[in-house]
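Cross-check.
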Amino acid sequence: MQPRMKKITEFIRRYPLSCFCIAAIWVLCFMDVPETPLSDVALMDKWTHMVMYAGTCGVIAVEYWRSHKKVNLRRWILLGWLAPVLMSGLIEILQAYCTGGRRSGELLDFVANTTGATLILCGGILWEWFRARR
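Predicted model, tokenized:
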């Protein structure tokens, strides 16, 4: 097996739920949004974005801590916070310019995504700080 393919396979083996969450976000962000009774709830879309990214970043954090005995905080921030935030920005740009008007890229969606990811980042830093003090 080629070295690059081996790295990808190892990544998927170490982070299976994270990969699933990321794939689910990509699918959900480009499919048509169905009308539901919750569509009339104020800011429901933004809450959904926040929870979706908080959940994904939380899964990434748990899988990172599970697969590493010693946590490299910089690497975890890069993998567990910055990568999802950048992915979020890319998705919003693609929604705005590549969906033919079916979806719209919104700055507030990006803000909600970043907020969800940042909440988990702050919680994770506190968790690691308490864990290191023991």
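The first helix runs from residue 3 to 14. The helical segments are 3-14, 16-30, 44-67, 73-98, 107-133. Passed to J.P. for a second look.
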